[in-house]
Predict the structure.
Amino acid sequence: MKTTKENRKIRIDKKSKQWKLHQPFGELATFIDRLPDTREVQQNKLRSAPRSLTAMVF
């Protein structure tokens, strides 16, 4: 006997407080999940730490 799965989506009105609350978190999650492109990797060069933070390290 073959089993079937049912997928259901919850529909939330885009004007509701809940949608406005969770939308930025969803956008952040998709931004973090993506891989950086070549230009972004080349622009993100390693730099030494600022002098104000070295006291915290040592």
